[in-house]
Design brief:
The complex is a heterodimer. Chain A is mostly helical. Chain A contains 4 helices and no strands. Classes of the chains: A mainly alpha, B mainly beta. The interface between A and B is medium-sized, with 23 and 32 residues.
Chain lengths: 102, 253
């Protein structure tokens, strides 16, 4: 049982890292929560000499959780796009010329 | 002469409202667009609706634009820079020129519709992925809107005097095809209207004869139940999932 929990914790921890790399935002909370639960469970089921690995997994997932929470507090912004803005200005002039001829 | 004067006086309030569109120039509505992923709303893009009065040598027009841009964190995965614009009569919201310029993850498409003076046809110019422009003329029903002016046309509907489940029908042109659009009034509802806080809103269901929208009463727009009728929340259901647009900024000059 401990081994299965640990294996799943590894898997969800990998998913958590993947979700951070892909900007999945709060969606990353799902694998992080599962890693926390599974690593906690594995820690409880471990004897004194086996507690190191689940503890490391627990610390990693807590760090990821904090990272997601902090990222969630930063407001999303659209990057300025000079090309897009320039195209808009040019198009507007062309539009007015066309409307003049209508 | 007296009778004529009397008729004019009686009709004056009607003239006053008919000459004035409820859509002001200099308005900007900014929305956060979110997509439902595994039950969690994930913010993907920003949608901006703006209006501006413009003038040619002979007339004044209202420039309506709708822009969608992905947030910077998504740009390296799937960048979207879409622009939909239309120039309409400020009172009737009848379109003269509609333009669509989309960039979606490398895919580009440009469309331009010039509404002909007869009001029965559109001269279009379309180019996909920077390939040759294809020009054509296609006929339309009188009163056909483009999709941007349709959003604003919605705001001119008098929902306050409509009954629940009452349907108003429009025709819109999209991808050079006419699409029937039904607008069903579902009553009023108090909702979290984003930047406006909690507001009493008209709940409107949008149905269209297209595969782009899915489900019955699953595409809903909430308009503030006041004279401005600001669209503050939009929930949509498309073939690949569901999402919403929540008003996060409102500017009116």
């Amino acid at each position: 049982m401990r081994k299965i929990a640990l294996l799943l914790a590894y898997l969800f921890c990998a998913f958590s890292v993947l979700f951070i790399v892909l900007p999945m935002g709060t969606l990353g909370l799902i694998p992080v929560a599962l890693t926390l639960i599974l690593s906690g469970f594995a820690w409880v089921k471990s004897n004194a000499t086996q507690k190191k690995v689940p503890a490391i997994l627990f610390i990693i997932s807590t760090t990821i959780l904090l990272f997601i929470v902090v990222c969630g507090l930063i407001p999303d912004e659209v990057a300025p796009d000079k090309q897009f803005e320039q195209r808009k200005e040019i198009n507007k002039k062309q539009d007015l010329e066309e409307l003049e001829n209508l | 002469m007296k009778k004529l004067l009397l008729i004019l006086i009686l009709l004056s309030p009607w003239f006053a409202t008919a000459q004035k569109s409820s859509i002001p120039g200099g308005e900007q509505l900014v929305y956060a667009a979110s997509y439902n992923m595994a039950g969690l709303m994930t913010q993907l893009a920003q949608v901006t609706l703006s209006t501006e009065m413009v003038s040619t040598s002979t007339k004044k027009l209202l420039h309506l634009s709708c822009e969608a841009a992905t947030y910077s964190k998504w740009d390296s995965f799937f960048k979207i820079r879409d622009s939909y614009e239309t120039y309409v009569d400020p009172v009737s919201l009848k379109p003269s020129l509609f333009k669509r310029d989309i960039f979606e993850g490398g895919y580009t498409k440009k469309e331009k519709y010039l509404y002909q003076k007869d009001g029965k046809s559109i001269a279009s110019v379309v180019s996909i992925k920077r390939k040759l422009e294809v020009k054509s003329v296609f006929s339309i029903k009188p009163g056909t809107q483009d999709i941007v002016s349709l959003i604003y046309k919605l705001r001119t509907v008098d929902f306050a005097h409509q009954n629940k489940q009452q349907i108003t029908r429009f025709t819109a042109v999209f991808d050079e095809k006419e699409v029937g659009v039904s607008v069903k009034y579902l009553g009023t509802e108090r909702i979290n209207a984003g930047v406006l806080g909690e507001k009493l809103c008209y709940k409107i269901s949008i149905g269209a004869q297209t595969n782009a929208l899915r489900g019955t009463d699953k595409n809903i727009i909430w308009l503030t139940a006041d004279a401005r009728k600001i669209p503050c929340l939009i929930r949509f259901s498309i073939p690949v999932g569901t999402g919403q647009l929540l008003l996060k900024q409102l500017t009116q000059n």
